[in-house]
Design a protein that fits this description.
The complex is a heterodimer of chains A (about 90) and B (about 140). Chain A is α+β, with helices and mostly antiparallel strands and about 90 residues long. Chain A has helices at about 10-15, 30-40, 45-50, and strands spanning about 1-10, 20-25, 60-65, 65, 80-85. In chain B, helix 2 (about 50-70) packs antiparallel against helix 3.
């Protein structure tokens, strides 16, 4: 089965991808880390510029506005955001 | 509202008023400013970008944690976004307590958590180009 998830990009990652948000059809119930693998394939620029140096690059992921671990499962309609380490304050 | 993301400057008197009550014996304020130097470069201005909905939600979570962790009366977290010039205010934390100690402790803990967790990013426009700031890292854009 297929489900839809929205992916949002912020700060430098948005500049790299060139869009703020896009929707992906992915296998139902996948984990965050599996979504990241799909994104690396469909968005080679992310693979080259974000995940290039090491697999554990500084990538923060949130699901529906909360930080999640890479092992968390996703559901249909989830909004996943990818962003670099924060620098507010 | 105790957690806000705003474009305009802070009304500090309003902020102090909103955490005040007859029980309060001390208020501690942290006010962040745009500094004219970063990583040895001369800064012209800062541009803050935010994941707005999550930034406010994360500030609310930090505020609730601070209220549980410290015996304070109240605390607020306001953060600005958009283009800010040198000397402008960037972040405001105001903690109130019966006594100063818990207000100081809560204020310090809260600013550290905000800097670590709230999805806001700064772009520094300097005399040597423009940089994204990511945690401790500075990444050149142009």
């Amino acid at each position: 089965m297929i489900m839809k998830v929205k992916v949002r990009y912020f700060a430098r990652f948005r500049s790299i991808v060139g869009v703020r948000e896009e929707e992906f059809e992915v296998p139902e119930g996948i984990r965050v880390k599996e979504l990241l693998d799909i994104l690396k394939e469909r968005r080679p620029e992310l693979k080259n510029e974000v995940f290039a140096q090491d697999e554990d690059a500084d990538v923060n992921v949130s699901k529906n506005g909360r930080y999640v671990s890479f092992d968390d499962h996703l559901s249909d309609g989830d909004v996943v955001a990818l962003f670099p380490p924060v620098s507010g304050g | 509202m105790k957690c806000r993301l705003l474009k305009d400057n802070f009304n500090i008197a309003e902020a102090i008023n909103s955490v005040s009550s007859p029980k309060v014996g001390g208020i501690v304020i942290f006010l962040g400013k745009v500094r004219n130097e970063s990583h040895g470069k001369k800064v012209k201005k800062l541009i803050y970008e935010a994941y707005e909905e999550m930034a406010v939600a994360e500030m609310e979570r930090i505020r609730e944690e601070a209220m549980k962790k410290f015996p304070i009366e109240d605390i607020l977290i306001w953060h600005r976004y958009g283009e800010l010039e040198i000397g402008e205010d960037t972040i405001l934390i105001v903690a109130s307590g019966k006594h100063r100690r818990e207000a100081f402790d809560a204020c310090r803990w809260t600013i550290d958590e905000v800097k670590r967790r709230v999805p806001v990013w700064k772009k520094e426009v300097t005399d040597e180009g423009t940089f994204w700031i990511e945690g401790e890292k500075q990444i050149k854009i142009s």
